[in-house]
Amino acid sequence: MAFIFKNLSLSSSVFFYAIPLLLSYLFMVSHSHYLTNPTPFSSINATTSNVSAGGQWLLLHNSIGVSAMHMQLLKNDKVILFDRTDMGPSNFSFPSGTGCRQYIDTHHRNRTITDCTAHSLQYDVISGNVRPLYVSSDTWCSSGAVDPNGTLIQTGGYGSGIRKIRTFAPCDDGKCEWTELPVNLTDGRWYASTQILPDGRVIVVGGRRAFSYEFYPKTDDVSSKRYYLSFLEETTDPYEENNLYPFLHLLPDGNLFIFANNRSILLDYKQNRVVKELPVIPDGIKRTYPSTGSSVLLPLKMNGSLDGSDKPEAEVLICGGSPPGAFNMSNLNRVFVSASNSCGRIKLTDPDPKWVMEEMPMPRVMSDMLLLPTGDVIILNGASNGTAGWEDAANPVFNPVLYKTYEPDPNLRFVVLNPSSTARMYHSSALLLPDGRILVGGSNPHEVYNFTAKPFPTDLSLEAYQPPYLGPIFAALRPSILTIEARDSIVSYGQMFSVTFMLSVYRPDPGISVVLITPSFTTHSFAMNQRMVVLDVARLENLSAFAYKIAAYGPPKTTVAPPGYYMLFLVHAGTPSHAVWVKVQ
């Protein structure tokens, strides 16, 4: 959640800095084109070493022992990563005599397998340490969301796990583990999607041959039901499907946007009623699994209406995918057709929403799209040919692309960034960290771990991408949060709270923004529950030469920002602070 505060008069003492700070300021001004006019694709050198222009990749671990098919950041700065559990041993063994499980290998003559390796890990963002976690049922191609108390609600999977509900509650003593609940999902949920709702429930939508949705927790007869949704059946292509892992976005009016294949609807899930069917996205490209594109709900910017009567604009951006028949061609014929370079953007709060098409600098399938604190979108990972699936893609795309959400000229919205040296193909994932970096891991386009496969062996590494805003030339523009003046760091709906922070060089235009971003559950190129809200700002005070206090209002209602934990960033002149965790309620 952010707000641009322009009309601020500061005391003259702010500008009488020491010589080093003046030099720093002059250096910033001389490089200010990086803030407002990043280099477009036509002129950028993709291999440049200029960190501020194109970002920087950092290797965190050569191997964490598990391929990161799924990722979830929790409020204690720990990331839960996990793979499937039915593909044989990982490269991370539990201590002798612990963590063993037996399962029936349905892929190879129903053998009984004893496996004493971890298929889930906890990664500590601060220390870099990893800790093995035991998960009993199969989490292959599952989904998740974080509830208002900060607990990961993890749903579905394959085989023994297809109806399972698991939870992981964060802890600080290093002893928390997965809990598998005795209550099950009503339908099998393999390749389903989840979304946290305004009342704190989780809705689980779709899955293979599951043309329905349901809710968690399972507290009564209503929540234990499944609700048939014909849209999911109608969007199923013969053999290819192309409607798995549907894109879900909760809109400020409380309706749920659901996109599958190349179609989308607005669902009133309370009444089990389709409110509106939206236009088919042009160009015929398939966008959901296995023709996997990606989708984000663009930032929700508050507009001064604290009672929520004047709802913020809601826009969805969907990029990439593959043409009809691409999965058949790759899976059956080993012919990898070109993915799509198109994006569609639609303003759902318009009376008559229409898709506006744009073009990325290169075709992409299986890419992740993440919201940055600046409001821009980063697109990374994936391939330029083929589809999702085991060994069904070719030609990895190493360069991330920055999508400049607020750039009025569509020809200048895409910026190609510095490349990784690691192919992130099928079953890779990425998420935003509180320090503004992007955590990237996974890539296993094989049925089992295969470290000799060519050209894309299983990858167990973990790396971080530092976007251009973390470049050293922006250090003086980066706010540093000191305190949140809100009881127990709770941000209440519609209520004012304050943040004190330090800043070396203040630029009144564009000023300071206050941003809330949810931690997403990322798998299969979709960051579920991803959300950014830009808060209304009441005032900005200059406390001393480098100290400031900004007062902002909490989000107006639960449909704008569902209850739970958010990362709060301050953004100044395109440069975000390190986030602090707050609870919205």
UniProtKB/TrEMBL annotation:
Keyword Transmembrane helix assigned: yes
Keyword Transmembrane on entry: yes
Assigned keywords, A-Z: Membrane, Signal, Transmembrane, Transmembrane helix
Residue ranges occupied by any Glyoxal oxidase N-terminal domain in the UniProt entry: 69-469
TM regions (residue ranges): 7-28
Domain Galactose oxidase-like Early set as annotated: residue spans: 478-584
InterPro entries on file: Gal_Oxase/kelch_b-propeller, Gal_Oxidase_central_sf, Glyoxal_oxidase_N, GO-like_E_set, Ig-like_fold, Ig_E-set
PANTHER family in UniProt: F14L17.20 PROTEIN (PTHR32208:SF57), SECRETED PROTEIN-RELATED (PTHR32208)
Protein name: WSC domain-containing protein
Organism of this sequence: Prunus yedoensis var. nudiflora
Lineage, opening ranks: Eukaryota, Viridiplantae, Streptophyta, Embryophyta, Tracheophyta
